[in-house]
């Protein structure tokens, strides 16, 4: 005998079906990983490219299936220096940005583009982990809508020249076309060193050195090795003019859409990645002088105090210093 369904039974069945559909939809939504597209000009062999893989692997370990991290190397997605604007427009989720990039929009940040201010990698980490760093990170979040996750050591920048002329003082760089990235902060540093700062995209530097479009470039030693600039240059001058940083960052809209737990996982993964980069890069730098000498390059230290004085005087007399918070240089110097 067929049992007739009452109106109440039909309502219960319909409600159960709707609940099942809702739970299924919720599970499907929760299962969709958060896509994080990262753009960098770094080549695959460079440590700050490898650290992105560490970041990706760490997230997969601590938050399996929650993130889909896409790493785009060699400026294949966005050109160097355009990443902040891409994140602000919502076209990019993550990038490694420089203080020079930030200073274009927040002039106070130009203090971290100044030569001979940050002493070494340890000092760099301590400065950005201090109240000073948190204050400057907040500027970026508030004014640029970008969340800085952590700072990584990019290396200590040295001069890498195609000529044989020995460089002892800043005067010896007079007329030398020194490639610098194309921003006011970078070009100022190149000119402050005594050279003729010339803007050129990173991907064009090797050919520029080869053809004589530029006479030299400045980068940390691991980068010189990774992109094989030593093949088209003759000397490295150990000016130690900038202890450089790279900031692993995320578009704030992307960051704010994450749950608190996901934000914590992202922060932890960033810390693991930058620690990996720093350890490898510092060890690499220690061994590279001998490597470049074995490749036939001259590697030597110039009159660093002369360079330091010229560069620091140039900054203190510049318009950049007018934008620096009062007492910031003394505060940074006081961090031990």
Automatic annotation (TrEMBL):
<dbReference type="Pfam" id="PF03480">
    <property type="entry name" value="DctP"/>
</dbReference>
<keyword id="KW-0813">Transport</keyword>
<dbReference type="InterPro" id="IPR038404">
    <property type="entry name" value="TRAP_DctP_sf"/>
</dbReference>
<dbReference type="GO" id="GO:0030288">
    <property type="term" value="C:outer membrane-bounded periplasmic space"/>
</dbReference>
<comment type="similarity">
    <text>Belongs to the bacterial solute-binding protein 7 family.</text>
</comment>
<dbReference type="GO" id="GO:0055085">
    <property type="term" value="P:transmembrane transport"/>
</dbReference>
<dbReference type="InterPro" id="IPR004682">
    <property type="entry name" value="TRAP_DctP"/>
</dbReference>
<dbReference type="InterPro" id="IPR018389">
    <property type="entry name" value="DctP_fam"/>
</dbReference>
<protein>
    <submittedName>
        <fullName>C4-dicarboxylate ABC transporter</fullName>
    </submittedName>
</protein>
<keyword id="KW-0732">Signal</keyword>
<feature type="signal peptide">
    <location>
        <begin position="1"/>
        <end position="30"/>
    </location>
</feature>
């Amino acid at each position: 005998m067929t049992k007739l369904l009452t109106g109440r039974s039909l309502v219960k069945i319909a409600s159960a079906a709707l609940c099942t559909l809702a739970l299924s939809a919720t599970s499907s939504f929760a299962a969709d990983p958060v896509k994080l597209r990262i753009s960098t000009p770094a080549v695959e062999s460079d440590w700050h490219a490898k650290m992105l893989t560490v970041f990706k692997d760490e997230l997969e370990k601590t938050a399996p299936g929650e993130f889909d991290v896409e790493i785009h190397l060699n400026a294949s997605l966005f050109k160097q220096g355009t990443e902040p604007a891409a994140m602000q427009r919502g076209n990019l989720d993550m990038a490694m940005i420089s203080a020079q990039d930030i200073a274009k929009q927040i002039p106070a940040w130009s203090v971290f583009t100044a030569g001979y201010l940050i002493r070494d990698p340890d000092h760099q980490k301590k400065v950005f982990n201090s109240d000073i760093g948190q204050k400057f990170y907040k500027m970026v979040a508030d004014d640029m809508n970008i969340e800085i996750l952590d700072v990584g050591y990019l290396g200590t920048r040295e001069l890498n020249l195609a000529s044989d002329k020995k460089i002892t003082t800043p005067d010896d760089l007079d007329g030398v076309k020194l490639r610098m990235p194309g921003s006011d902060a970078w070009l100022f540093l190149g000119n402050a060193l005594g050279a003729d700062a010339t803007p050129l995209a990173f991907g064009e530097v090797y050919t520029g050195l080869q053809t004589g479009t530029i006479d030299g470039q400045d980068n940390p030693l691991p980068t010189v090795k990774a992109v094989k600039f030593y093949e088209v240059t003759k000397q490295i001058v150990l000016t130690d003019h900038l202890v450089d940083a790279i900031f692993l960052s995320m578009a704030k809209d992307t960051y704010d859409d994450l749950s608190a737990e996901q934000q914590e996982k992202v922060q932890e993964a960033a810390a693991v990645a930058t620690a990996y980069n720093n350890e490898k890069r510092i060890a690499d730098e220690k061994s590279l002088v001998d490597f470049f000498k074995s490749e036939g390059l001259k590697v030597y230290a110039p009159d660093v105090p002369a360079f330091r004085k010229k560069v620091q005087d140039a900054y203190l007399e510049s318009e950049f210093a007018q934008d620096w918070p009062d007492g910031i240089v003394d505060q940074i110097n006081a961090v031990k």
